[in-house]
Every structure is written in structure tokens, then in C-alpha cells.
Amino acid sequence: MINLAIRDIRHSWWRYSLTGIILGLLIATTITMFGIYRGMVADAVALPAKSGADIWVVQKDTLGPYAEASSLYSDEQLGLAGFPGVSEAANVLYFTLQVQRGADDVRVMIAGYEDGKIGQPTSIIAGRPIVKSKYEAVADASSGFEIGDKLLIRRNEYTVVGLTERMTSTGGDPIVFLRLKDAQEVQFDEDNTSIYNDRKRSNQNESNEFAKYKANAILVKAADGWDPKQVAASIKQWKHFEAYTYQEMEQILLSKTIEKAANQIGLFLVILEIVSAAIVALLIYTMTMGKLKEIAVLKLIGANNSLIMMMILQESWGIGIIGYTIGAIVSALWVPVFPRYVVYSTDIRVITFAITMAICTLASIISIRAAIKVEPASAIGG
């Protein structure tokens, strides 16, 4: 028996191919949007996941250093270091600013850490860690910095001595690591006019120094055999700080920091799928309406509804396979040029393929219903 689907595709190959290309671009966008969401999640948890901490101690009634402002005196770390269940405690300082690289400005997150303690840069792929007490930095490779580059941060120049991989802020900004003291000086540094005004107002010989000894959070590593949840609860009770375990901090990042962006991506994906379904449905319906007489002839010679339904589905699945193939190729080509990290993994492509075929199947329902209603007698008499 003649395969009506193949014959019809050959007859309308230009329209079929054009629809496949359009659908392919939509599928490429879908794959990319999935990848952007995964990349946002990866960026959000990159720094806490590689910090080595079990607990984040932050200012009371705040959500911590990644979601909102937090300020603690650095000497609080000494009290936490001897707290029951704590094996290590270290101050960290995070803030975002523009740093100058030659004639360009680059937006980065500064991460200040205590040497030899948790919170220091990991995943160094080139160069070395910071060994000098001042004016050395380790930058993430996504920043575009290279070993030996000079960074002008406020009034001081820092030399990049090492590069990390996949160390970014929740917003996708590359991280530049500095020693804690350097980071404190950068964040609380004042220009000469401000220093003069402070001295004049307070009648002191130097500007206020206490601000230089603050941190955003204290990273805590639980001692062996201790449950981080119990240690965090004890810190909250006795130290009157907020204390979050890694699971709690991860939830804060995903539900508070990137929730709105994730919802926007989700809505955009829904719109893409609706548009894709409409395009496929329009093509298949048009092709079906153009061959109603042939369908009536098939029924007249004994073809049942299941055979006709399968022919329509073959056309729809064919356009889905063509569109997905084009989409996978196009997305693979343009993902590397995106300014943000995009996850391009096998499971995303598999999920997208399954969604595409499901959409093509659903888009065929109207055409199948129209074909089934065709009366065999309509094949006679024109």
C-alpha cells in the first residue's frame, strides 16, 4: 500500500522543510533556556559548594552573605572556633564591584578569605595560590584575566597569580579571591576627602578603623561525629547569630536568589512550547485538509482509521525529528558564545526530544479527528 505520508511530504517538501527549520530554531532556544536555568543553579551554588564549610554563621535576622547583606565583627570567629562541635571557623568577606583591567572595567565578586582556612580558592587550574600578604589575587578564568595581569581595585594594584574554574557569584560574575585583610581594606577604603571629613568631624588623628575588622560571614566546619544541624542550632541559641547548614543555604540560594529568574525562564519555555505546537498543528492540519479525497479513497478500499491516524502521526513525528536535529545542531553552535554559563548536557537534550515528540503528537489530534470524520462516499463524485 502506498505510504501517503511519504508521498505527501515529497509533494510539499519546501513547506515541510521550512517548518522544520522554524521549529528547529524554537527547539534550539528551548534547549538553551533549559541550559541557562541549569547554569544559573550551578552558578548559585558554586561558591558555597567549594567553600569547605558545613555551617554559615551570619548576622541575626539575615539570610546570609549570598542573598543579602550581613555584617559581623571578625573577632567573633575566635569565640566560634572554641564552640562545642566546631573544628574550624574562618571569616569571609564577599562584595561586588568593578575592577579595572587595562582600559576595561570588569564586574566581579571579591571574596576575602583567611589564609590556610576554609573559604580559600579551590579548583586552581593555572598558576598558584596567594602566598604574599598583600596585592596578589586569584581570579576565575571566566573573567578573562590571565596570569600576570594587573588589576586596579580602588587605589591599589593586584597581580593575578592563579586562575580558578567555575567559581562565580549567584549572578554569574567571576570571583576574584583576595586575602581577608586586603578585601577588608578594599571594601572599607575611603578616598582622601572622606578621610579628611571623618577626622574633622570626630577630632581624631585617623579615620575610624573598626570597620576594617568586619566580615560578612563566618564559615564553620563541624567536628567529626557532630551533626551540622545540631551545631547550627546551638550557635543560634547561645551566640544569637543566624546559622545555616549547607542544605539550608542551598535552599536560600535557589528559592530566594534565583527564584524570579527561574520563573521567568519557565514561563518563556511554556510560551515556546505553545508556539511550537501551533506551528506543527497548522502544518499538519493544512497538509491533511489537502488530501481529504485521498483519505476517503483509502477508506473506500478498506483502510481503517488506525492506518490513517498512523500516517498523520508519521508526518508529525517526521517534522519533530527534523526540527530537533536542527535545534540540537544550532544550540551546540551558539551555546559557547553566551556570556553566562550554559549547561549543555545529554539529559537536557533527551528531555527536549521527549517534549518535542509529545508536542508533535498532541498537535496531530485536530488533523486526526478531521481525517477520521471523512466519509468514504466523498471519494465518489468529486
UniProtKB/TrEMBL annotation:
Residues 267-376 form the ABC3 transporter permease C-terminal domain. GO terms for cellular component: plasma membrane. It holds the Pfam family FtsX. Residues 18-237 form the MacB-like periplasmic core domain. The keyword Transmembrane applies. It is found in: Cell membrane. Its main location: membrane. Keywords: Cell membrane, Membrane, Plasmid, Transmembrane, Transmembrane helix, Transport. The chain crosses the membrane at residues 12-37, 265-284, 319-338, 350-372. It is a multi-pass membrane protein. PANTHER family: ABC TRANSPORTER, MEMBRANE PROTEIN, HEMIN TRANSPORT SYSTEM PERMEASE PROTEIN HRTB-RELATED. Part of the ABC transporter complex hrt involved in hemin import. Responsible for the translocation of the substrate across the membrane. Belongs to the ABC-4 integral membrane protein family. HrtB subfamily. The complex is composed of two ATP-binding proteins (HrtA), two transmembrane proteins (HrtB) and a solute-binding protein. This is Putative hemin transport system permease protein HrtB.
